[in-house]
Amino acid sequence: MELSGTWYILEGEPGEHLVLEALGKRLSGIWTSEALAQAFLERHPHLGMRVSPLASRALKEAFLRALGMLGVEGVLVDYEPGAHRARMAGLETLLQEVGHA
Fold it and tell me: 10 Å Cβ neighbour count for 70?
């Protein structure tokens, strides 16, 4: 999965990240364009979150480690509600990829 560019995430207060529960798993999301992340947020304004970019390896790694502390198991990439399929990457796999980038 090509995720070497900037990631866009949803965050609220410091340390607060979007966490979804689906199929008995805790998941979060990253988007590969700001427009996709904003489109998701526009559909869910009640979340009270904002879109933030993660461009450096250090920021991506910190984000993934924070998700791990929140019990997140996987990350949906470019998630759109109502889409029949979403790309998913395991948290550990992403941490390894970011560590080798």
Answer: 12
- Say if residues 11 and 85 touch (Cβ distance below 8 Å): no
Encode the chain in three state secondary structure: CCCCCCEEEEECCCCCECCEEECCEEEEEEECCHHHHHHHHHHCHHHCCEEEEECCHHHHHHHHHHHHHCCCCEEEECCCCCCCCCEEEEHHHHHHHHHHC
Label the pairing between strands 87-90 and 74-77. antiparallel
Tens digit of pLDDT for each residue in 8-35?
Answer: 999 988 778 888 888 789 999 999 999 9
The partner residues of 26 in beta bridges, in order of sequence, read 21
